[in-house]
Structure to design on (202 residues):
């Protein structure tokens, strides 16, 4: 059962996410967040060391976790259908980016806040590059298993797949498009695999 402190922290994170949705990152002041959470600004800083730390918690709390999706991929190295495995991951990755886009855009528009946020990510060894690296490791493992061509740069392949997911997520904010359809994800995966399968000719 959650403790009172945990419940308070979760309430603050939910309030921060709601305020960001309503006012954007620039307008998500600690005063507004505290008012939405029904607490004092001082209490915010008893749970979070900085505004950036609170924003990170709000961002991570609303995203479908890529970690478990990547773990499932690695558990399936050498087994299962490559298209099915990667399609499932691509759907999750697209939804991840779709939910992250608004906050990321807000951070980019606030240079000082972005600098602090980047410094915090670097100090923790996390950031948007990490999932791409883990996906590249998966591709390398499948190359070792003989299921993907060794001629292909695994890092570039991972960047291409994640980039396609990110691009689709961005389009959903500009156009009336569904973001996470398995059909789109499958098309991206099959097109990518056409150049990754053994027997590649260049």
């Amino acid at each position: 059962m959650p403790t009172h402190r945990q419940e308070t922290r979760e309430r603050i994170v939910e309030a921060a996410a709601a305020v960001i949705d309503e006012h954007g990152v620039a307008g998500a002041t600690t005063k507004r967040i505290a008012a939405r959470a029904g607490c004092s600004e001082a209490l915010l800083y008893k749970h979070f060391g900085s505004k950036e730390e609170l924003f990170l918690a709000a961002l991570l709390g609303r995203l479908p976790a890529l970690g478990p999706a990547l773990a499932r991929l690695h558990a399936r190295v050498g087994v299962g259908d490559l298209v099915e495995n990667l399609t499932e991951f691509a759907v999750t990755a697209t939804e991840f980016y779709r939910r992250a886009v608004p906050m990321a855009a807000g951070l980019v528009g606030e240079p000082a806040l972005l600098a602090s946020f980047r410094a915090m990510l670097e100090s923790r060894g996390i950031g948007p590059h990490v999932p791409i690296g883990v996906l590249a490791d998966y591709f390398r493992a499948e190359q070792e298993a003989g299921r993907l061509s060794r001629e292909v740069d695994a890092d570039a392949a991972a960047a291409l797949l994640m980039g396609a997911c990110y691009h689709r997520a961005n389009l959903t904010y500009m156009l009336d498009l569904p973001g996470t359809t398995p059909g789109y994800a499958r098309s991206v995966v099959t097109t990518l695999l056409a150049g990754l399968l053994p027997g590649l000719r260049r």
